[in-house]
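Teaching note: in complex prediction, the entire set of molecules is handled at once rather than each chain in isolation. The prompt given to students was simply: 'Predict the structure of this complex.' The entities are:
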Amino acid sequence: MEVLSEHRCFGGTVRFMRHDSRVIGLPMRFSVFLPPQVAEGRPLPALFYLAGLTCTEETFMAKAGAQRVAAELGLVLVAPDTSPRGAGVPGESDHWDFGVGAGFYLDATQPAWRTHYRMESWICDELVELVTRELPVDRSRIGIFGHSMGGHGALTLALRHPGLFRTLSAFAPISAPSACPWGIKAFSGYLGEDRAAWAAHDASELMARQSAAPYPGGILVDQGLADKFLGDQQLLPERLEQACNQVGQPLQLRRHAGYDHGYYFISTFMEEHLRFHAQGLRTA
Ligand SMILES: N[C@@H](CCC(=O)N[C@@H](CSC=O)C(=O)NCC(=O)O)C(=O)O
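The expected output is the structure of the full assembly:
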């Protein structure tokens, strides 16, 4: 693991990191925030944040305003990049919502993409292993959250890997990707036309298949009502709400008048998400 840069922040440290990923077959970047409590020498709870389309490992650290409260709560923050970079797939940078910056947190199965576009295995296998080995992180107390495409990632990775992430929340997640233009484009490209394969990466469909509530302590989702992408039917939070109701999964889906899709919205509610996770990870 190589430290690319390091910045003091609220008594802790923001680090930008790169490592040679075995799973992706390329160097991958991520950022971490280590709170001041690392000096106490005990493993700390950690939160993985998955960012949205066009973002990098820097977006969350620079824009979400999470470090002050994470420093107070003693939470390590980990923010992975949103796709492989330099895979060399023809046309991979031609679209802002597919390819580079748009890995959709799944392992692609289609020939052009499947060698390098393996974001699910990178995060759930390699990165969790790496940060728990190299940083003072308690593997039994990891939570996950994310925004938009990253909200889809947080929800699906949590549901697909029971027990890995103890707490779960999202900002304006793509809640039913099989039924929205972004998801249909990404799933067709990465997974092909088999709709059963899509369902296994669709948060609402995964939730509807649960036999019991996977997060009995609840899931927190915030959604702005002035979000352009909500109006464009890209997010479909009502489908997640319906699936949660169906299986008895407690969901706090908070709809906020006037807020859009961007980081002004995210930073407004960031503190409440951090406290929600810290509370859940304390009792984990
Ligand atoms: N270029 C796009 C807008 C891209 C965009 O809004 N990305 C969002 C995530 S959208 C879903 O995953 C984002 O987080 N952007 C980073 C930011 O700093 O706001 C367009 O032209 O509409």
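Point out the following to students. The beta strands are 2-9, 12-20, 27-34, 44-50, 76-80, 137-147, 167-171, 219-224, 251-256. The chain is about 35% helix and 25% strand.
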